[in-house]
Design a protein that fits this description.
Layout (H helix, E strand, L loop, with lengths): L6 H12 L4 H8 L3 H8 L7 H13 L2 H12 L1
Helix pairs in contact: 1-3, 1-5, 2-3, 4-5
């Protein structure tokens, strides 16, 4: 998953919201801190390779919704 910022942050926010998780809950699932997720979503930083892999796994768990989100942010 290679996206520019801010698309990356918007995708992460959409994934988290589709999963019905708060930033704190999503951080726990992905293995980072709340402040890290907050920085991603606000466009200040991008995920590390390991975090991106974990996020991609969550995206795949969303099935067709995940593919739609990835297409939405990859095409723009």
């Amino acid at each position: 998953m290679v996206l520019s910022q801010p698309k990356c942050g918007m995708l992460i926010r959409d994934i988290r919201q589709k999963l019905g998780l708060s930033q704190e809950e999503f951080a726990s699932v992905v293995g980072v801190t709340f402040s890290t997720v907050n920085r991603w979503e606000n466009g200040h930083t991008k995920p590390s390779r390991l975090a991106a892999k974990n996020i991609e796994e969550k995206l795949l768990q969303l099935g067709s919704h995940g593919r739609e989100l990835l297409a939405k942010y990859s095409s723009n």
